[in-house]
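Re: the pair you flagged

First of the two:
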Amino acid sequence: MTIQSPLEKLYHWTATQPEKTFLRQPFNGEWLHFSWKKADDEVRRMAAYLRSLNLPPQSKIAIISKNCAHWIMSDLAIMMAGHISVPLYPTIPADLIRYCLEHCEAKVAFIGKLDDWKSQRAGLPDDVKGISYPLWTEEGYENWNDIIANTAPYTENYVPQGKDIATIIYTSGTTGLPKGVVHTIHSFSYAASWALSEMKDLSNNERFFSYLPLSHIAERMLVEMGGLYCGATISFAESLDSFPANLKDTKPTVFLAVPRIWTKFQMGILSKMPQSRLNILLKLPIVNGLIKKKIKEGLGLEQAKYLLTGAAPMPVAAMNWFEKIDFIICEAYAMTENCAYSHLTRKENRKPGSVGTPMPNCEVRLSDEGEIQVKSDCTMLEYYKEDEKTKEAITEDGFLCTGDQGEIDSKGFLKITGRIKDIFKTDKGKYVAPAPIELELSKNTYIEQVCVVGANLPQTMALIVLSEDGKKEEKTALCDSLQQTMNEINAQLDKHEKMKKMVVMKEEWTIDNNLLTPTMKVKRNILEKGKTPHYEKWYAEKDTVIWES
């Protein structure tokens, strides 16, 4: 296979389909269209401007914005100018903005659509030059449109070297300060080229929908690189409120969601059509097809060729539920550190409970402790300025240590069994892996979020956040359901793993209250820091299902 860089793909599609829409940006209820020709022109003008600043080669340039057309154009402009992009999550607080930008010695920052830039702005170091996107102007910064209007386009078809650094991605992480993951042009190009080759029937007619943070590797590789490498159209969500309408209007042919989003979809469907009624309708031959079609159209996914999930394990029960309404969801498994290139479930070759088989030219093994280790051309170069952590993460023979535990069957299917760092010891010194228990608990549709804890306790406890259905259910019936679920799971567990209590949280875990990462994984360390002082009291309560006061 010929491996081409993102810029080479931009040049190719601009030359072969200049008037076709590349980026669709919603603004005030209207769609703004950027053709390949228009996007290429703006990228070239911004690249020329960045070159005019006479920064040292491979300078770091940050992107702080929600997803939008200019996010992708600035990413390409940074690359065309011979510099390194440093994307930051749009929800990142001021102290971490300052940490990341000072750590990487950023020179410039693109600032776009944000919910709380007023408080975040204090994190931008004084020596970092700000450039604001045109639809979300920021006082005191140069504006994208002004720069474009006053700068001639860069005319060369610049192609960076494979060994050049493309980006430094600061991990959101569930623990500690972010680490800067360094990826080269080659790892980006290799991952995009081979990953898309595994999605066999993609063409330049595909429609991608971008709403998960582009600062996260999964969205960046599948959506940004997917659009670039396919020659497809990428549409964006304008806001949380407009998300359903934007999704329906886009009718994506490729759609990625994290498990929590799929759960929200499931709950939304069941709120309009209770499970008992859905079961009856799905058994009726003619009605069956109409119901499935109506559900898909209601979400805007009726034309989707590929439905994908990643970032966290997807419960088998949820997978099976969606399959009954003809949603074949393919699970992917990878990390920022290997450029989202590791495992994928193929539509034609699936195994419930697994995250699929390795991508082409990807070696996988288990350590003596059962840790998943992966090796490919997509492994990061290093953690930026973190030599010791890099040595810990990459073995001498080039395998990336994922920190995840797993099992591999005879056909190469990988099953994730837990996160090594999440494993805790009870007060009797017995180890517990919470992830498998959490997946079982999530089968109960009254439970939306769950975290199993128990460090230094005789037995484990489950901290749960109720779903909308759970909140509506009468308390006695709800307790009975939760108790039954716990009993059924406990029957399958070893004595030290069995749950003693189930604690219903009074507050939902969100990105805004810092209990979820931007990809909606629970920040276990932060959650536990706030809840640990209450463990003994909860454990001593006489009821099995209790409410946080």
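Second of the two:
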Amino acid sequence: MAGEARSKVTNLIEEISIRDLGVIAEAKLQLGPGLTVLTGETGAGKTMVLTALGLLLGERSDSSAIRQGQEQAFVEGRWMVPNHTSAAEIVSAAGGQIDNGELIVNRTVARDGRNRSAVGGASAPVAVLASLGEKLVAVHGQSDQIRLKSAVAQREALDQFSGVAELLQNYREAFESWKSAQQRLQELKEASLTRETELQSLREAVDELDRLQPKVGEDVELSEKAQRLTHSEELRIAASEAHEMISSENDVDDAIAMVGKARRILESASAHDPELGKIAESLRELGFQLGENAALLSGYLASQEAGGASELELIQLRRAELTAVMRKYGPSLEEVISFHESATKRLLDLDSSDEQIEKLETEVDVIFAQVEDLAGQITAVRKHAALRLEQAVTEELKTLAMGGATLVVTVTESTDYQAHGVDQVSIQLAAYPGAEPRPIGKGASGGELSRIMLAIEVVLARTEQALTFIFDEVDAGVGGAAAIEVGRRLAQLAKVAQVIVVTHLGQVAAFANQHLRVLKTVGDQYTASDVVTLHGEDRVEEIARMLSGMAESDTSKASARELMVRASEFVNQ
């Protein structure tokens, strides 16, 4: 059962390597799913393990933490991170890679203050580590910023607990449609202020061009025609003289007559030489061509006879009108025609804008009604969930030696519609009956804060995909039965998440799936710490030491074994 629950955990720290950090010369922590406890005597170096984790999560570095005699400290973490998650997106954006679900993150801190960090094999600023850490790990300790510090995080936690996701998605879609419609309406209204001026100008232009109806190439055609009419007399004389020369109406020898005479002379002589017959045939064809050209010239002269001057006047007037509109609307007639088409379309759009505004105003009102209704439903769900969350966490606090404390979750409505709705969510704690509720993290000791967050995380873990949780001093000021309950709650949380705990209590350590101990060695010239994984009798002795201070005592060992058996039964449920 426990293994089945634990299989749901996705993001896991599998291994942490530390070199030259504080009293730790070199250590490798093998981690895994479930609950991992870190134990050791005071001053052994447990803090350095948390410091190493903090460096991997983008926390500020301190060169004083570098091991004495060394120039730099190095930490590396190996995570299991599935693809297509927000954490994977951060890695990809930084240029790093996740290899078969494995992500390597490392950081080097130099004594001169310089930092180097890498994510998935790619160099990255420390800020990227911090962004990644927010998606992977939640740290709860006396000096740490708690996960639910911000109003946004508190609202998101309540939403996750309430199961409002589908309703919230419907709201967001309606909200975006409403905002988009509002923007379009605003643009139309702003445009209407200047629309009348534009309308007047466009109407004048379209009316003028509707009247003229210019055609493509018309200006070139009219220019050529005007050229002909301007020189019409000169052209008529030329055509007349040419016609007279080809086919004269007077009694003179014209070209047709002379060619005919030449043809006949050659024909009469061709009986003696066939070659002259061929030439005579060519002259016959020439005579035909001359006749056709004479007819063409006659037709040309006929077309030039009347109306030339009046036609030229009309053409010049048309050309003047076309030139005028080309100066106004485009350097070429093609551009004028294009402007005419676009202006006509724009005029139709502007003429219908009043209708559009009215229609869009109705649309905005309809969509807002949907937004308002969905926001109200979300508020109702949140308020109901707030009561359930209060009750559930308060019950958890009772088992963690904080029976007088009460969680207070308030949902306050506003008139300011946002993408998340209209609610402001606040999670506060009343430390004792009658106390004024205060923000989480204020008015509580480090140990109390860790227990508060443990209670909240245990409840939230029932409904959300949990992070890796790290608890420091969660057992401060707790003993006996309350300590066992702290261990139970940590083990319960560890069924759906990876949990790492620094503890001084054997009652907590007994529930661990992995037990790590920090050992300190003090020599004449040095102090060093190492991290070892405890199994079997070594673990029994460590828990016995934590329970009574006497690791070798048979009575202490027996108590440790009994506690471990009871804890194992709970873990394996």
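The first strand starts at residue 12 and ends at 21.

-B.
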